[in-house]
């Protein structure tokens, strides 16, 4: 009861994975700051790098640096990058000026835009030194957002993983929800679980440092995002245990995610049905409206956000689409395995990217819809292919029941637009 129906006999979990390494087309992990700085109200993200990184954040966030309240850049000039200047002293002065100007900061993240070998600056050591200097008012942590070391969503993973070792110890039995979501979506998840009698419920990242969850062997956690592999490993090292489930996209995925947590806390079927029946019905109705456009259409995923496998599961099983290729930057079966178990064998599963070879496969397949990054979308549109920007799927609220219809509509919209353009051209 309340389990996924029609589980295929042969699934994508054991299918061979096409692994290619070459030129790739993805954003770097710095872009995670754009949503993380809004989530953590007393944190500040100081990007340590070059002017190129400052320009990236300006463009990606659509604002001038420091126009938003909780992120900025410490620009290293060419001399620092060559190791010819004492960048540690300059960083210390920049941090001191920042904290003097912003006494509300309780967590300061030093975000490396390049590997330490490039900028000649050990940010891990700098974070330890600055924590001692500014304790107990401010804790300084560091992680890498370098495009050499991280892809688009791995910035969030690296950030959350850096926080886990300093979480306080607890022996309490708690549920921890892991991953940054818009507050309204997070509140929906907490409300559903609370109505089942599950609690206490904590979240990572918490809005403020004083509300950070404890960590210990009685803590169980459920991931909200499929790209949090390093964070999951860090939580496991602290003794917490993961609840494995498909990710909460669409009616089926949300139900399976909630059911796995409910089973962990001994929630009976009657209670589960009472809490979920109405939102499940709304989700099915909303998805069905978009599925009229999506059913029978083919889709091709370029790797971008690591959301590709759960999205493919949703589109295949709930919207009737056919996946030709499902590409992801990295495939962590410990996280996305439950979603792969629900995808019938058939699509090519690819990890990593040689963009030229993947473009050749896409052009040969001529899918009805191609999900890709901004840099590939316009050229493919010019070749007559219909595309969907992968980045929009990250910035739009798409988790849980109330957003299931919105998720399906994001994929249906480009197909409807293409159909209207053909109709207008015919007239």
From TrEMBL:
Recorded superkingdom: Bacteria
Catalytic activity, reaction form: chlorophyllide a + oxidized 2[4Fe-4S]-[ferredoxin] + 2 ADP + 2 phosphate = protochlorophyllide a + reduced 2[4Fe-4S]-[ferredoxin] + 2 ATP + 2 H2O
UniProt-annotated binding residues for [4Fe-4S] cluster: 28, 53, 114
Gene3D superfamilies associated with the record: Nitrogenase molybdenum iron protein domain (3.40.50.1980)
GO terms for biological process, alphabetical: light-independent bacteriochlorophyll biosynthetic process; photosynthesis, dark reaction
Gene behind this protein: bchN
Pathway(s) per entry: Porphyrin-containing compound metabolism; bacteriochlorophyll biosynthesis (light-independent)
Function of the protein: Component of the dark-operative protochlorophyllide reductase (DPOR) that uses Mg-ATP and reduced ferredoxin to reduce ring D of protochlorophyllide (Pchlide) to form chlorophyllide a (Chlide). This reaction is light-independent. The NB-protein (BchN-BchB) is the catalytic component of the complex.
Keywords tagged on the record: 4Fe-4S, ATP-binding, Bacteriochlorophyll biosynthesis, Chlorophyll biosynthesis, Iron, Iron-sulfur, Metal-binding, Nucleotide-binding, Oxidoreductase, Photosynthesis
Cofactor-binding details, from the entry: Binds 1 [4Fe-4S] cluster per heterodimer. The cluster is bound at the heterodimer interface by residues from both subunits.
GO molecular function terms listed in the Swiss-Prot or TrEMBL record: 4 iron, 4 sulfur cluster binding; ATP binding; metal ion binding; oxidoreductase activity, acting on iron-sulfur proteins as donors; oxidoreductase activity, acting on the CH-CH group of donors, iron-sulfur protein as acceptor
Lineage of the species this protein comes from: Bacteria, Pseudomonadati, Pseudomonadota, Alphaproteobacteria, Rhodobacterales
Cofactor or coenzyme needed: [4Fe-4S] cluster
Domain Nitrogenase/oxidoreductase component positions: 28-401
NCBIfam families found in the cross-reference section: DPOR_bchN, PRK02842.1
EC numbers: 1.3.7.7
Subunit-level organization: Protochlorophyllide reductase is composed of three subunits; BchL, BchN and BchB. Forms a heterotetramer of two BchB and two BchN subunits.
Name this protein carries in UniProt: Light-independent protochlorophyllide reductase subunit N
Similarity annotation: Belongs to the BchN/ChlN family.
SUPFAM superfamilies per record: Helical backbone' metal receptor
């Amino acid at each position: 009861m309340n389990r996924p129906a029609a589980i295929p006999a042969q699934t994508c979990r054991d299918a061979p994975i096409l692994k290619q390494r070459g030129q790739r087309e993805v954003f770097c992990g710095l872009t995670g700051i754009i949503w993380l700085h809004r989530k953590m109200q007393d944190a500040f993200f100081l990007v340590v790098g070059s002017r190129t990184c400052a320009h990236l954040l300006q463009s990606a966030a659509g604002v001038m640096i420091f126009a938003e309240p909780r992120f900025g850049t410490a620009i290293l000039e060419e001399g620092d990058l060559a190791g010819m200047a004492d960048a540690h002293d300059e960083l210390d002065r920049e941090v001191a000026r920042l904290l003097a100007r912003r006494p509300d900061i309780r967590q300061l993240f030093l975000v490396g835009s390049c590997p330490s070998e490039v900028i000649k600056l050990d940010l891990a050591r700098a974070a330890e030194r600055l924590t001692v200097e500014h304790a107990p008012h401010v804790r300084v942590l560091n992680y890498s957002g370098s495009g050499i070391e991280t892809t688009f969503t791995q910035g969030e993973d690296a950030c959350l993983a850096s926080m886990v070792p300093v979480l306080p110890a607890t022996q309490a039995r708690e549920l921890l929800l892991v991953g940054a979501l818009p507050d309204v979506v997070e509140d929906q998840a907490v409300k559903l679980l609370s109505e089942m009698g599950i609690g206490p419920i904590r979240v990572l990242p918490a809005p403020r440092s004083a509300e950070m969850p404890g960590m210990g062997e009685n803590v169980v956690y459920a991931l909200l995002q499929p790209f949090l592999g390093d964070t999951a490993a860090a939580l496991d090292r602290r003794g917490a245990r993961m609840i494995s489930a498909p990710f909460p996209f669409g009616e089926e995925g949300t139900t399976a995610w909630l059911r796995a947590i409910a089973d962990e806390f001994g929630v009976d079927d009657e209670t589960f049905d009472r809490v979920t029946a109405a939102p499940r019905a709304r989700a099915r109705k909303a998805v069905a409206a978009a599925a009229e456009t999506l059913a029978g259409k083919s889709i091709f995923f370029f790797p971008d956000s690591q959301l590709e496998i759960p999205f493919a599961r949703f589109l295949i099983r709930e919207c009737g689409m056919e996946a030709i290729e499902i590409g992801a930057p990295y495939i962590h079966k410990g996280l996305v395995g439950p979603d792969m178990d629900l995808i019938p064998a058939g699509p090519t599963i690819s990890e990593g990217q040689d963009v030229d070879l993947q473009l050749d496969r896409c052009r040969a397949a001529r899918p009805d819809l191609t999900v890709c990054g901004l840099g590939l979308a316009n050229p493919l549109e010019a070749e007559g292919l219909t595309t969907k920007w992968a980045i929009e799927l990250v910035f739009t609220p798409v988790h849980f029941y109330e957003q299931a219809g919105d998720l399906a509509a994001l994929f249906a919209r480009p197909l409807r637009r293409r159909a209207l353009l053909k109709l207008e051209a015919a007239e």
